[in-house]
Automatic annotation (TrEMBL):
Annotated Pfam families: CLIP, Trypsin
Entry remark concerning the domains of this protein: The clip domain consists of 35-55 residues which are 'knitted' together usually by 3 conserved disulfide bonds forming a clip-like compact structure.
GO biological process, one term: proteolysis
Source organism: Nezara viridula
Xref: InterPro entries: CLIP (IPR022700), CLIP_sf (IPR038565), Peptidase_S1_PA (IPR009003), Peptidase_S1_PA_chymotrypsin (IPR043504), Peptidase_S1A (IPR001314), Trypsin_dom (IPR001254), TRYPSIN_HIS (IPR018114), TRYPSIN_SER (IPR033116)
MF term (GO), any: serine-type endopeptidase activity
Principal EC category: hydrolase
Domain Peptidase S1: 116-361
Family note: Belongs to the peptidase S1 family. CLIP subfamily.
Name recorded for this polypeptide: CLIP domain-containing serine protease
GO cellular component, as recorded: extracellular region
Length: 361
């Protein structure tokens, strides 16, 4: 542990004056021995100075729980601390080509208030990418609406891994464009599309809640409309390295309407929640048996009462940037429901962009 800490300090000192030039001059086509990153992505062994993703983690290793372990696991050669397995970068011109970019995504025609401090019903069309996940059992055709998700393209929805076929339920249908369940007079014209296939992240662990993200492929192409649109993924470079602490993103869904849990809401609800730092979040969750790592994000009010229990598992944490909304988090878990001192925990979408693209056909 001491040797690794000293190595981190040495690397930081050695590279601090050269960081800017390295970012400018770094070539996309790196060379070096092939390797596999700790999160099972194909990479190559390079000096950490040539790997902006790990370099950024290194600079924040003093405040992010679990980062040192991830960096240690990323080393290619135990005797050369500066040589790491860096995931292969895409050319800028080919950067996530299957994902939509503004102005094709993240658009809503409903103007939001500057700050929503309490949960409230969402206007029709406020969040046109929100999806309802419908399940059935062997003995009942359903649908049972148990989880939420986010439309990211004409054929794909992102949700939480724990929402992918939780036994004894089977995910079979996605609803888009809904506003109020069981109300045919709310002005909404929802569409139901059957599921072609589902994929949970291969590293998802029910016990640790890590890598809680999944993809749902639809059988048909989604017809976009005013109330059915995809949300943007946070692919801009400045967002991929952003922690979002002290930002106030939105969360929405048809989840519980009461602190501590309770009946699900029939109407789509929304709220804004402040993003907290991972270190303080980890401190409150560690005694409960859960560690908060850099691939996760925490958001919620210290006094509780309003939190991601207002939304469904798998639903979106949405941040406005310019005139578009971006999916920065996926509702994962919490302690109880909006309990004081325990922010909601979300899967950090920027940590999974490569996995998402690699699994979209």
């Amino acid at each position: 542990m001491i040797k690794w800490s000293l190595s981190l300090c040495a690397v930081l000192v050695a590279i601090s004056s050269a960081n800017a030039q390295l970012y400018l001059n770094r070539t996309r086509r790196q060379t070096g021995p092939s390797c596999v990153t700790p999160d099972r992505i194909q990479g190559i062994c390079v000096n950490i100075r040539s790997c902006p993703t790990l370099l950024n983690l290194l600079k924040n290793s003093h405040s992010e729980p679990g980062v040192k372990d991830f960096l240690r696991s990323s080393k290619c050669n135990p005797d050369v601390p500066s040589e790491v397995c860096c995931k292969m970068e895409r050319q800028e011109s080919q950067d996530y080509p299957t994902l939509m970019s503004p102005p094709e995504c993240g658009k809503t025609y409903v103007n939001q208030q500057p700050r929503i401090v309490g949960g409230q019903p969402a206007e029709l069309g406020a969040w046109p990418w929100i999806a309802l996940l419908g399940y059935r059992t062997k003995n009942s055709p359903g649908p049972y609406w148990q989880c939420g998700g986010s439309l990211i393209s004409e054929r794909y929805v992102i949700t939480a891994a724990h929402c992918i076929n939780p036994r004894p339920l089977t995910l079979y249908i996605i609803r888009l464009g809904e506003s109020e369940l069981d109300n045919d007079n709310d002005g909404a014209t929802p569409i139901d599309i059957l599921v072609e296939s589902v994929l949970a992240h291969p590293n998802y662990s029910f016990s640790t809640k890590l890598d809680d993200i999944g993809l749902v492929k639809l059988k048909e192409t989604v017809p976009f409309s005013r109330n059915v649109q995809p949300i943007c993924l946070p692919k801009p470079p400045e967002m991929r390295s952003q922690a979002f602490v002290k930002y106030f993103p939105f969360v929405a869904g048809w989840g519980s309407t009461a602190s501590g849990g309770g009946p699900a809401s029939k109407k789509l609800l929304q709220i804004q929640v402040p993003v907290t730092d991972n270190e303080s979040c980890d401190k409150v969750y560690t005694p409960k048996g859960a560690r908060i790592l850099s691939k996760q994000l925490c958001a919620g009010y210290p006094k509780g009462g309003k939190d991601a229990c207002q939304g469904d598992s798998g639903g979106p944490l949405m941040l406005p940037k310019g005139s578009s909304y971006y999916l920065i988090g996926v509702v994962s878990f919490g302690y109880g429901c909006a309990q004081a001192g325990f922010p909601g925990v979300y899967t950090r979408v920027t940590s999974y962009l490569d996995w998402i693209v690699d699994n979209m056909n």
